[in-house]
Amino acid sequence: MKKKQLRLLLPLCILLLCCLAGILCFFRSRAQETFLQLSELNETAKEEKDTAVNPYFDLSVPTYITRLQDTYFLVDCYHDEIICSDSLSRPLNEWDVMTDEISRGHTIASDGEVYLADDTENHRILVFEKEDGKFLHTQTFSDIGVRPHYIVYDEKTRCFYVLSSMTGELYVFTREKDSTRMALKDVRSIEKLNGIYVRSFTIMGDEIYFVSGNSTIIRARLKDLKILEEYPVPPEIAGMVQLTKIQDYFYITVSTDADFNQDYATFIRTKDLHSLASGDYEDIYSYFIGGGTPYYITSFDGHYYLTEHRLPGHSVWQFDVEDNEIVNVIPVY
After folding, report:
1. Which tens digit of pLDDT belongs to each residue from 247-275?
2. With 0-12 CB in 10 A as exposed, 13-18 as middle and 19+ as buried, what is 12?
3. Of 137, 139, 162, nearest to 151 (Cα)?
């Protein structure tokens, strides 16, 4: 009797196991379908030539400086390259070229495993991995909006966020589990920014701020870009580059006025974004001589850094903020 029961149960067990395997495969495939797109692999990455030394002695419209892990990176926009170094004290012509495959690139970000850089005029995102001291271009995302302009890695959500500067679209990238393969997870958008030039965004907790391109700063929810509040700004500071919070102030770099005139370029700060509309803000560009066009602000090694252009001999600044006072302003390059 027992043998007969076992013979009857065996097919049933096999059927149950097959069903379970099918269910697991179904949910695994559904999980994979949450990615909108996987990166294009660069099969020739390891065949690339040895690292080149930067051929330039100066910078041509530097946009972004940062430290990622143990390496410093500088995006030299009009030289169409990203250069890197183990020290900020090296002359520019002693930095290495991470990549010269970009056209008017602006930023670079990393999660510690991969490095994402925007290739602005080619509407691409390039993915790099470090191997034996070399940065290899291993993956690419093509057709990413119009002029992708700014990249941030957010530790909280473990995602890279990339702004298409002309369409109001925010592209969300993530790594596949236990892999360096990158995937496009989501594309979020703010319709009223479509066709408006927006140079950057700032993530603060669960919220995101877009600098004015349509004469207002927009505060939205990060998860779906639902607009929470707008802060009107006057025409003379409408062409903002970046907004960042340092202690009690919002620091804002301005590239142009509403008509794209760089003569209005400046660096301002305010404690209350609502006060911008009435012109109630402090112009702080005199701390950095002034007269150029300030761009992105970053923070690393216990200091803040500012890139700027149009002012020969002063392309990168280092500064500190102590008790809301700007101190120790030093030209780096």
Report:
1. 999 999 999 999 999 999 999 999 999 99
2. exposed
3. 162
